[in-house]
């Protein structure tokens, strides 16, 4: 994954190989994307929780994390915010969801992982992001090697495994026998105390997903 964060790697894997103008067609994909952004901001200490489990800005967002700006700025302006409120903003305001989609997509275009083109609709023209096949393949191979063959699994790989599992994209990038091994390892990690950070990552993702999906329902 090299210079790809978990958020950008997930976005790349979630794009349709023929191009996508949104991820909001899938509740799971859009909720996982938001969950990953929040997780990355929390783990980077750009956001923190207060004693009432509300999030607020803790540190400035650096240039290499600018693709997270739509989520960061929402919380900075409306601080402090609970997870439910953040999810609600993205559920009921398509402009916010689109701004996040555009921000991450353009960051991947700038780094050569994705191509972009205008896609004309009936009333508007949207930007379509199309992943480069070799880039998607590299993410898959890196994840496959880390999870299936290495003793130590980096935290960002574990987070990406959880996101792909929750969003339903596992089957698009891994063979059936590989899926079985991945899910077994994920289950073991969730049941052990061998890595506090890994369990914290998984806990954050699942908690955010619960709030996001319940807001939609």
UniProtKB/TrEMBL annotation:
GO cellular component, as recorded: cytoplasm; endomembrane system
Superkingdom of this protein's organism: Bacteria
Keyword Membrane: yes
Bilayer topology term: Peripheral membrane protein
UniProt KW keywords: Golgi apparatus, Lipid-binding, Membrane
Example of a GO MF term: phosphatidylinositol-4-phosphate binding
Compartment list: Golgi apparatus membrane
Subcellular location, principal: Golgi
Keyword presence, DNA-binding: no
Identification of the protein by name: Golgi phosphoprotein 3 (GPP34)
Species classification: Bacteria, Bacillati, Bacillota, Bacilli, Bacillales
């Amino acid at each position: 994954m090299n210079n790809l964060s978990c958020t950008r790697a997930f976005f790349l894997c979630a794009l349709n190989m023929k191009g996508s103008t949104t991820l909001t067609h899938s509740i799971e994909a859009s909720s996982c994307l938001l969950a990953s952004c929040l997780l990355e901001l929390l783990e980077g200490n750009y956001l923190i929780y207060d004693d009432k489990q509300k999030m607020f800005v803790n540190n400035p967002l650096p240039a290499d994390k600018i693709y997270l700006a739509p989520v960061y700025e929402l919380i900075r302006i409306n601080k402090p915010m609970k997870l439910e409120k953040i999810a609600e903003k993205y559920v009921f305001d398509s402009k916010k969801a689109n701004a996040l989609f555009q921000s991450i997509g353009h960051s991947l275009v700038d780094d050569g992982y994705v191509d972009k083109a205008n896609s004309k609709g009936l009333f508007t023209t949207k930007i379509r992001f199309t992943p480069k096949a070799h880039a998607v393949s590299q993410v898959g191979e890196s994840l496959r090697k880390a999870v299936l063959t290495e003793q130590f699994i980096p935290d960002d790989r574990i987070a990406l495994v959880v996101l792909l599992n929750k969003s339903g994209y596992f089957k698009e990038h891994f063979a059936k026998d590989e899926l079985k091994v991945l899910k077994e390892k994920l289950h073991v990690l969730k049941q052990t105390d061998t890595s506090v950070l890994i369990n914290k990552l998984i806990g954050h993702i699942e908690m955010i997903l619960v709030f996001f999906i319940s807001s939609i329902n």
